């Protein structure tokens, strides 16, 4: 009889838990956010791949929107502005960092170069 009670208790418990679903570490908002970020990265990559030197900074801002980071300084009497746009993922932490961006370098408001090599030469 004791075995029959244990079997009945196990069957009851199994039927009660059969409808339970536990989701751990997954949030649809995270998927939506990453999906949006991937689209932004792709848009930025596509635009930057078509760039030509001499484009003015205002045109780039109009096309790509607000940069993720900006820097501005004087070099040899000219104003240098660097706009950083996210183009790839280096860290899975959901935070955009400069190493996940492509630098666009402008002197006197015109594009003179882009990418890591151009930024390092500043």
Keywords:
122 residues, alpha+beta, four-stranded antiparallel sheet, 4 helices
Q: Kindly, what is the distance between the CA atoms of the first and last residues, rounded to a whole number of angstroms?
A: 85 Å
Tell me what portion of residues adopts beta-strand conformation: 15-25%
Mean pLDDT: 83
Number of helices: 4
Q: Structural class, from helix and strand content? A: alpha+beta
Helix-strand pattern: HHHEEEEH
Tell me about this structure:
42% of the residues lie in helices and 23% in strands. With 122 residues, the chain is of the alpha+beta class. Strands 1-2-3-4 form a 4-stranded antiparallel sheet. A hairpin with a 2-residue loop joins strand 3 and strand 4 (110-114). Residues 13-27 have low confidence and may be disordered.
């Amino acid at each position: 009889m004791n075995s029959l009670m244990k079997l009945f208790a196990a069957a009851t418990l199994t039927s009660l838990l059969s409808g339970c679903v536990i989701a751990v570490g997954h949030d649809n908002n995270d998927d939506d956010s990453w999906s949006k970020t991937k689209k932004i990265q792709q848009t930025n990559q596509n635009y930057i791949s078509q760039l030509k030197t001499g484009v003015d900074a205002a045109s780039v801002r109009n096309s790509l929107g607000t940069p993720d980071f900006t820097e501005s300084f004087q070099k040899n009497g000219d104003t240098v502005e660097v706009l950083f746009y996210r183009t790839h993922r280096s860290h899975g932490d959901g935070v955009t960092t400069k190493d996940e961006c492509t630098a666009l370098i402008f002197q006197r408001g015109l594009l003179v170069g882009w990418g890591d090599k151009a930024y390092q030469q500043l």
